[in-house]
Design brief:
α2 crosses α4. This protein has a single domain, classed as Response regulator (Rossmann fold). β3, α3 and β4 form a beta-alpha-beta unit. The chain has about 150 residues and is an alpha/beta fold. About 35% of the residues lie in helices and about 15% in strands. Pfam families: LMWPc. Keywords: Arsenical resistance. It comes from Thalassospira povalilytica. InterPro entries: Ptyr_pPase, Ptyr_pPase_sf. This is Arsenate reductase ArsC.
């Protein structure tokens, strides 16, 4: 039997501009309102244009997302924090001192480090998107709708 879905999940990375925003959008897409999903970063940065483009390719619009930091979160409690950068991992572990929650580290490549043509950079972002999508579907499987 699949693991129970957590009630709330926070995805965190360094800038809340690429990885954590993609992950939150994907989890919301697959599980809708069954899980409260939020994302944040150690620092806030504008949502990356390449991230917007590759998510749009799969029908998910993240263009209106407003980046936020850990300190700007409206909800202070999460069942699970999934971090996607070492920096965010350290911050999440600090949060566990005052919050009972699980923390998972999904070391995820930072596509913003890739230089080159637009297509080269888009390919890097697609790889990150697809890696995150696979991790989400492995960790939070989409099964048949529950019987009522």
């Amino acid at each position: 039997m699949a693991e129970e879905l957590p009630g709330s999940v926070l995805f965190a990375c360094s800038y809340n501009a690429v990885r954590s925003v993609m992950a939150a959008a994907l989890l919301r897409h697959y599980h809708g309102t069954r899980v409260y999903v939020e994302s944040c970063g150690v620092r806030a940065g504008d949502v990356d244009g390449f991230a917007i483009a590759v998510m749009d390719e799969i029908g998910l619009d993240i263009s209106s997302y407003k980046s936020k930091t850990f300190d700007q979160l409206e909800d202070g409690f999460f069942d699970l924090i999934i971090t996607m950068s070492p920096e965010a991992q350290h911050r999440a572990v600090e949060m566990t001192r005052t919050m009972a929650c699980d923390v998972e580290f999904w070391n995820t490549f930072d596509a913003t480090m890739i230089e080159g043509s637009r297509e080269t950079r888009l390919d890097a972002y697609r790889q990150v998107r697809d890696q995150i999508k696979k991790r989400i579907l492995d960790r939070f499987p989409v099964g048949p709708a529950p019987k009522i």
